[in-house]
Amino acid sequence: MTAISEARSGQDLRPTIAIDGRSGVLDQLRRRASRLGIHVDSGESTRGQLVVVEGVAPQPNYLGVIAQSEPGRIYCSDDTLDYVVALVAEYTASGATGVRVRGPVLNEWAAIGTERKRRRRLRKFDSVDFDWDTGESTDSDVFDETVTLLADGEQVSGRIRVQGYLNPSDGQFHWAGTAYGDDVRRWRDERIRNVEVVTSSGQVCEARLTDVTPWGTVRLVGEGMPPR
């Protein structure tokens, strides 16, 4: 069953993310996730959820964000907020149902990790440091292709990686992900927000450029059926 047919049957397709607790940094995470078009729940995890809590992960951990003993549980603090936002966005865009730090990465970090290196790595999230649990049906719901983008009378070509989900709070289908390329980044720098996405099949989707990630890509969100 495809993402579209499941959405029509009323099932919720979004990767489930729970932010457990109330605090300044967790409230910031909620607001930033919302601006990226990412729906989050409140409260403890259910099966398949990524849970974010405040604090530092117990040892052994990677960057204080995720512990070897607690895959799927992310720890967030003031100095890791940007990194956690990026991790949550990647989790959503990839359609993951779980995440864990890769064993070789954790072992290397245990040997060479210092506070200075930690600060450096926190400045640039790298998805290859993690194993993302994705089933075949979930992967098929991720759209990752080169498309035509139109905005402000200009047309460019660029890659996007997005996924759709049914938001139970409004009953509407939404989608979110990442747009890559210098032209899209230039548009966002020029405060262009509204774009049209045209796929190779001719489908046209309205979208918004929300913000620039710490590593230079641009977050893209839309409502209605996602690109396919």
Task: Describe the fold and architecture.
This is DUF4873 domain-containing protein. This protein is 27% helix and 34% strand. The strands form four sheets. Strands 9-10-11-14-13-12 form a six-stranded antiparallel barrel. The protein has a four-stranded parallel sheet with strand order 2-1-3-6, covered by helices on one side. The protein has seven helices and 14 strands. The chain is globular and about 50 Å long. With 228 residues, the protein is of the alpha+beta class.
In short:
The protein is an alpha+beta fold and 228 residues long. The chain contains seven helices and 14 strands.
Secondary structure elements and pairings:
Elements (H helix, E strand, L loop, with lengths): L2 H6 L8 E3 L4 H12 L5 E2 L7 E5 L6 E2 L3 E2 L5 E4 L4 H14 L3 E4 L1 H10 L2 H8 L7 E4 L2 H4 L2 E10 L2 E14 L4 E8 L2 H8 L4 E5 L5 E9 L5 E6 L5
Parallel strand pairs: 1-2, 1-3, 3-6
Antiparallel strand pairs: 4-5, 7-8, 9-10, 9-12, 10-11, 11-14, 12-13, 13-14
Count every helix, treating DSSP H or I runs of 4 or more residues as helices: 7
Strand content: 25-35%
Outline the biggest β-sheet: 6 strands, antiparallel, barrel
Helix-strand topology string: HEHEEEEEHEHHEHEEEHEEE
Q: pLDDT under 50 segments (min length 5)?
A: 1-13, 136-140
**What structural class do you assign from the helix and strand content?**
alpha+beta
Instruction: Give the oligomeric state of the chains in this entry, treating copies of one chain as homo and distinct chains as hetero.
Output: single chain
